[in-house]
Amino acid sequence: MIVYTVGTFDLLHVGHLALLKYCASLGNTVAVGIASDEVVKLYKPNIPVIPLEQRIEMLQALRCVNIVIPYHELDYLSVCQEVKADIFVIGEDWGRKPHNQDVENYFNVQGKRVVQIKYNPRTSSTKIKQNVIAQFQRDKHIAQEIE
């Protein structure tokens, strides 16, 4: 079975690893679609900290990932069809946008599965960024007090 999932995978963390390991438990091939900076701009306020090429390289280094495919448009269906995905794993915020409905309709007609998962509450790239900024501001404030 081929399992396909998508994401930004900026600041790779344990939540990402849990998702990818879960995907590996569902099938024998894990294909990962990774959002380009242009795509991320469509649904997030900031582009990723880590450049696309480096995010691809990190995912390719993981044993639980077999295929990494960057995507430059919000079109999940074409890659699902390209990799011949049997299962599409997506986060709980999937929603009912037209490009999402196309994927669900395709999988239903083909007798395949869309699996929604809850996000790992332990961490996120956004939380990591917020912690780094807060730590930087604390350190900067302490340094100013010492001067």
What is the third-level CATH name, the topology? Rossmann fold
What's the total helix number? 6
Radius of gyration, whole Å? 17 Å
Q: State the helical fraction.
A: 40-55%
The strand line-up of the biggest sheet is 3-2-1-4-5
Kindly estimate the percentage of residues that lie in beta strands according to DSSP.
15-25%
Mean pLDDT across all amino acids: 86
Detailed description of the structure:
The chain is α/β, with parallel strands linked by helices and 147 residues long. It has one domain: Rossmann fold, CATH 3.40.50.620. Helix content is 49%, strand content 19%. It has a 5-stranded parallel beta sheet, with helices on both faces. Strand 4, helix 5 and strand 5 form a beta-alpha-beta unit.
Please outline what is shown here:
Helix content is 49%, strand content 19%. The chain is an alpha/beta fold and 147 residues long. A five-stranded parallel sheet has the order 3-2-1-4-5, with helices on both faces.
